[in-house]
Design a protein that fits this description.
The complex is a heterodimer of chains A (385) and B (387).
Chain A (H helix, E strand, L loop, with lengths): L1 H16 L3 H29 L10 E6 L7 E2 L2 H6 L4 E9 L3 E2 L7 E5 L4 H4 L7 H9 L3 E5 H7 L6 E5 L8 E8 L6 E5 H7 L5 E2 L1 E6 L5 H11 L7 E5 H11 L3 H30 L1 H10 L3 H37 L13 H28 L2 H6 L3
Parallel strand pairs in A: 5-9, 6-8
Antiparallel strand pairs in A: 1-11, 1-12, 2-10, 3-5, 3-11, 4-7, 6-9, 7-8
Helix pairs in contact in A: 1-12, 2-10, 2-12, 2-13, 10-13, 12-13
Chain B lengths: L4 H10 L1 H33 L6 E6 L12 H8 L14 E12 L6 E8 L2 H6 L4 E5 L8 E5 H6 L8 E4 L2 E10 L8 E4 L1 H7 L7 E5 L3 H13 L5 E5 H8 L4 H32 L1 H9 L4 H27 L6 E6 L4 E6 L4 H28 L2 H6 L2
Parallel strand pairs in B: 3-8, 5-7
Antiparallel strand pairs in B: 1-9, 1-10, 2-3, 2-9, 4-7, 5-8, 6-7, 11-12
Helix pairs in contact in B: 1-11, 2-9, 2-11, 2-12, 9-11, 9-12, 11-12
Classes of the chains: A alpha+beta (385), B alpha+beta (387).
Chain lengths: 385, 387
Amino acid sequence: MWDKEYLKMWRLLLKNLFRNKRRTLLTASSVAVSLFLLSWLAIVYTALGAPLQNADTIPIMMVRRSAGIIFPLPMSYGARIRTVPGVVACASLSWFGGYWKDPANQFANFAVDAENVFAVQFASSIPPEQKEAFVRDRTGAVVGRKLATRFGWKVGDRITLLGSPWGFTPELTLRGIFTGGPEDHLWFHWEYLNESIGRLNQVGLYWVRLDKPENASRVGQTIDQMFRNTGNETKTESLSAFLLGFIALLGNVRLIIAIIGSAVTFAILLVVANTMAMSIRERTSEAAVMRSLGFRAGHILGLFVGESMLVTLAGTLVGVGGAKLLSNALALSNITQFVFADMRMRPETLAFCSGLALFIALLASGWPAYRAARVNIAEALRYTG
Amino acid sequence: MAIPLKYNLRNLAVRRTTTLMTAFSITLTVTVFVVLMALARGLETSLSATGHPLNLLVMRDGSQSETQSSVQRDSLQVIRYLEGIAKNEKGEPWVSPELIVLINLPRRGQAQGSNVTIRGLTPAGFGLRPEFKVVEGRQFRSGLREVIVSKKISDRFQNCGLGDKVKFAKGYWTVVGIFEVGNTAYASEIWTDPEDLGQDFDRDAYSSVFLRAVDSSTLNRLKQQLADDRRLHLKAQTEREYYEKQTSSAAPIKALGIFIAGLMAIGASFASMNTMYAAVARRTKEIGALRVLGFSRGSILLSFVIESVLIALVGGAIGCLLALPVNGVTTGTTNFTTFSELAFNFRVTPRLLLNGMIFAVLMGFIGGLFPAWRAARENIVTALRST
């Protein structure tokens, strides 16, 4: 009995939804566009807060000067870091900042400790003969798969890096292409850099590979303790802490995103509320007729709120779904990198955006629907709009 | 003949809830647009407003920023005696050798730090920045590890208030003064004595040299002279050119602002379309009556478009008002050319407000056009018969 009634109400609801097709479509599209935007804001917001997926399971740490990432460390530290229990491998890396052919071709290029870099970056795999060729050739270089694809590089190509602040122009030979790990990097020999700039024997950072990720805090403290009260105190931190430090340089981006996000949310609320107010007002006398036919106030309320929910739901599916598809496509094409390395729509983002949308729908229709349901029947029947 | 504006105004007043809700969705769009553009504008201004037109900045050839540059002390002697340099009040060439280092300082209320520029310079250098003034405390003295901190950095970073001791390089430095340098990039720096600074950072060479040319023709001659001297490996550019190049860092903010506001505008136009379609449907009979009275299809079309634009104007005006208080609010980001903190103020300019209003009108126009078109096509007889 109840089921049958329920079904009838459903049909009534759908009929109402399609009564003014254009309005339903416009409202749903407006919600869709806004939720698409809101989803992207949420994606960027979460990515900036936690830049790496499963950050706790990555057994890699970074050692930098505590005074700041811009200051160099002595290259002699590498040997001492390797003696710390729990450290499996350690390789230096110095930001080089060159570009290829055109200043628009900016990418991540580093002078690294060629012998140890693959021991630290265990996720990067390279054919053994290519790795050997790279280690043997002082002017050799290796690049990640993404970067090789981007510039169409093949093993054996000559690559000249221009415009580096080091004031030195390395002429490199591509010896290998690695997959996995930081696939948008180019690495060449630190010795080549060091000789060319007058043997300062300095490096930018150290990458440290741990035996177990659980040892991170102990190893970090040991390393920092080791260099305390030297002229070059260190700061050892996890990869994700390092990235968060970088993100902090951008300033209060997350606050700005949150403020814009609330404005967008409020705008969606207004759009849905406006539509519902209009459509409920137009049906005031109709609701009264239904009431006099025996429909209860709860029915009327349910009809209007349900209508609002359905319109919003349709918009949400398109908007959030579109954002999800686009973020998947971007992740597949590998164009996001560095601080934006993990720009996906996480399940919690998806749930948050959809939940917010339905809450808005409830909020937007609640008051006018309540009024329509509680209205005095006689008065409403006289209402002419 | 046009339908009187009063007709539209009274209609809007009758449907005030709908009018306000529609206007408000336009308001939000305009506010977000103006605020983001004010952010970009503020960043641009702090860079493009930096520099006296006759000041030249000399750096090592090939360096992108002062941080990467170095100028040897003997090169300074060559520069000092170039022809065409203005004389200061003591009759000496108006040349200021400066030393730049970056230090990492924690922002107030945040554990994560940011890089702040420390500039070592002599009194000749203060004179080259006409907006410079010490607003609290006093000038630093050399040999005593004293610094003066710009107002914006002092407000935004820990241990940078007057009387505080800030730690960098080999120890603590005392903040003896707070200074202001207008809306320029220097307003995000800490200044101290170049010799003290060089000693602490083991730096013998300077980073850059600033000088004042006599006039604009000698300016170019000076540039040429420096470029031609092969021994020096130096390059001169005007201070303005140097900072102007960095304004490109505002481009991503602008692009983002347009993207976000654009998407919000689509949503808002749909909302105003909905409102206007409802208005047309409710007033079908009126439209018929107006036509009978002799108003043309064109004036009906115009009248409804105007009504929609009026809603948008109300929304836009409120939007601009809401965005106004953000004017002057200080924020900061990292300038990736110099890799150091650049603090700047949001700038809501009249031009920006005008753009916001134009943007609002555009939304109203698009939202009103289709419904108005439909109203204008209404057949008189059926319209009059409609309920």
